[in-house]
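Hey everyone, long-time lurker, first post.

I ran two proteins through the pipeline my lab uses and got sequence/structure pairs for each. Pasting them in order. The first:
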Amino acid sequence: MISKFEELIAWQKSRELVTAIYKVTNRKEFSRDFGLRDQIQRAAVSIMSNIAEGFERGSSSEFHQFIVIAKPS
């Protein structure tokens, strides 16, 4: 039984995505477009955050709703 959101494979993969996104967007090519860089970074973090928040809510229906929110991020 999973007891912490950090044990969820989806959260682990989203954390890997955030790390990869930050590596790419911190390159010189993104230095001139702060808005785009920040939007891409926020979207990646949003996925990870929604998975964690949904898990912490406790109910399956609320967790499902947060997964639905995370998906289009």
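...and the second, right after it:
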Amino acid sequence: MKAATALLLAACLTTNVNAATVVSVGDGDTIRVSEGNKKITVRLACIDAPERSQQPWGARSTELLKQLTPIGSQVTLRVQTTDRHGRVVAELINYQGNVNKLMVGAGQAFAYRKYLRKCDAQKYLGIEDEAKRRGIGIWSVGRSGITRPWDYRKGGGSSITNSSSSRKYRCKDIGSWSRAQQLLTKGHRYLDGDGDGEACESLR
């Protein structure tokens, strides 16, 4: 039922390009928005940003997305699909332009080659090449850049340990999606059961 609702929502958004209001920013490629009385989790299409635990890159990417999409600001969703987690996959457009492309151009996200079929692939790859040439953000460590987020997830992440507390949390006891993401950045990687960089999807 939840999946069907998400698919219907994506279809509606594709047909009607409506303004949405930013509610929160989860990381460098995930935000929450409200459209009318609906709260929607949006996964930015065409790009993949460093995981929050890929420090300092994850924090820098998240901070830039917060600057580009402040809470309460208006964005337009150019919807592509709904992913297996029920997130709407979309390009974000605001008064500054295409936010997804801005993230890549600032060296704070990679062009997500595996999922460029519905994107302007040539444009995204060109923007990435320019960021690489300039040596900014994720390319400041050299032309090879940092570990790609998709490889990082496959490898189970870095050797970051759990927080100083030995307490183990359960998603149902945490209380909010935002709190779950905070715990994930502090090393509680077991909350991200499927390794996609998002903790406790059930709390969205």
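Reply from user beta_strand_b:
Welcome! Quick read of the second one: The longest helix spans residues 2-15. The chain has seven helices and eight strands.
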